[in-house]
Every structure is written in C-alpha cells, then in structure tokens.
C-alpha cells in the first residue's frame, strides 16, 4: 500500500522530500490539484470542495496514510477529513511553536509568511493566541511565491525583488526566525537567507510532519518495503509525460541546494 500526499500544487513536494529522508522504502502517490491552484486566494467553501474531491480520489487508490502537504488545506479541512476517512491523516501547520520559544529567549520577533487564507483561518489565530504571550508574531501573505513556484520560476533576482517590495515596511533586523507557512516557500529559502542574513532561522513544518508520519506507521506496524517509487497525479490525471516528471525531479534538487543535503534513496533512482 502507498502513502498519499496531497497539495494544491507542487508545494507539497517539499514535504514529500522530508518524508523520503525518513521513510525511503515507502511508495508514494503525489496529487497536485494544479487545475485549481492557488487555494490561498479562493473562498473557504470552494477550497473545501476541491480538497474533498482530491482525497476521495486518493482514498480510491487504497492508500494506507495521507499527508495533507498544504497549510491552507490543513487549516480548512483536516478535522473534517479525519472524521470522514478511516486511514490516518497527517496535516501540516506553520511551525510557530518552536519559533516563539526560541525568539522569546533571544528577545527577537517571529515573522510568519503564508497564504492569505492560512493567515485568516481560526486554526492559525488560535495557535498564535495560545502561545504568543509576548506578542512576538508578525504575519505577511506572500501569494506571489506560490505563483513563482507553480510557474517553475526560481529566478533569484525576480524573487528577491518581489520579497524586498513586500517586506519594505518591515525592519528585518528585528527578526530571529522566519516561519515558512506555505509548502511552496521552502523552494525560496536561499532568497530569504540573502535578505535576512544567515543568523536568522528559517523553518517550516515539513520535518515535523514527516516525523509524525513515520511515528504513525511504526505504531500501526505499517512500515513499507517498497522501492521509493512516486506516482504523480495532477487533479486526478496520472502524469506519464517524462518531461513533466523531470521538472518535478528538479524540485528535489533545489531543496538539496537550499539545505545542503542529499536524499540518497528513492528520489533520483528507479522510483521515477
């Protein structure tokens, strides 16, 4: 049985990247709802319908677990999905908790960057209210980064120009941690580092999500013995075009470059 990964677009590949590091012998299905991306600028009702349609499709593939590799989708629908389906569903949320803990000690601020819809959701506001006792958190929606990623446009000059414009009213020296609250954003980690400096932590929820997935599979005695294969679907249509698959491969290489690491099994091998 395979593990399903779902995102509105290609952003969830950054979460799959972390999952393959800790679970290299699983087989995966990656579903990108590219016909309806971006979710973060649409209505909650509309997005919820897209999410359920996608998960119904994945459920029909007989998956053993599902990762909602999208902060917006998690905030809108993860609890309803868990009530509706009987396989474990792991969501992702902005890594605000560790960021606040660290910055409170250092007397620095936290900047959470995400989509408009994620930042508007009650789930996010409840999380911040619960733990941000010193009012350290600032928020900024960066929908342009989703557009860059979906267009496979990773030109550093364009991205940094966009970020400088969006951050023009912020004092960058105040921040100790940047929380990447959208799974598209880790592809631009290097650009954030160039703006904020190497002493600022740039974190996301991807690593924690991957660890939680592994814990659940271990607890359920469901660890796989596969080849690390990945089957891709775009809005329910299986991707057979090798050129498109090759473009997806480049995303892992970008993350390798951003993190200075390499996934040794399952990404560049026969799994494709």
Automatic annotation (TrEMBL):
Stored Gene3D superfamilies: 3.40.50.1860
UniProt KW keywords: Cell shape, Cell wall biogenesis/degradation, Isomerase, Peptidoglycan synthesis
Keyword Isomerase attached: yes
Keyword Kinase: no
Reaction(s) catalysed (UniProt annotation): L-glutamate = D-glutamate
Domain of life: Bacteria
Documented EC number(s): 5.1.1.3
UniProt pathway annotation: Cell wall biogenesis; peptidoglycan biosynthesis
Residue numbers annotated as active site: 70, 182
Gene Ontology molecular functions: glutamate racemase activity
Record-listed substrate binding positions: 7-8, 39-40, 71-72, 183-184
Recorded family membership: Belongs to the aspartate/glutamate racemases family.
Main function: Provides the (R)-glutamate required for cell wall biosynthesis.
Name this polypeptide is given: Glutamate racemase
Gene: murI
